[in-house]
Amino acid sequence: MNTEKTPSKHSAEVQKSLLHRLNRVEGQIRGIKKLISNEVYCDDILHQLEASRSALKSIEMVLLESHLKHCVIHQLKKGDVSVVDEVLTTIKKITK
Fold this sequence. Notes:
Metal_Tscrpt_repr_sf, 0% strand, Methane Monooxygenase Hydroxylase, Chain G, domain 1, single chain, mainly alpha
């Protein structure tokens, strides 16, 4: 049984979506830094932080779905059932 991990090969569409979303989050974080520097009302900053956290959660879900549909299935077809425990550990971490 080959347990070697191979890099994921996301479809061009998924990769483009992930990068677009990450660029948006990066902009949100820069905006939050400005808000803090400009001493903007804390509640407004908290709302922006939550928006960024939500955007990152959305990215996690897109990536998890792609991982399950492609990487995990590929590893299972190769006979690597340890990937199931790996995915369960990851899901536990991201759902805390």
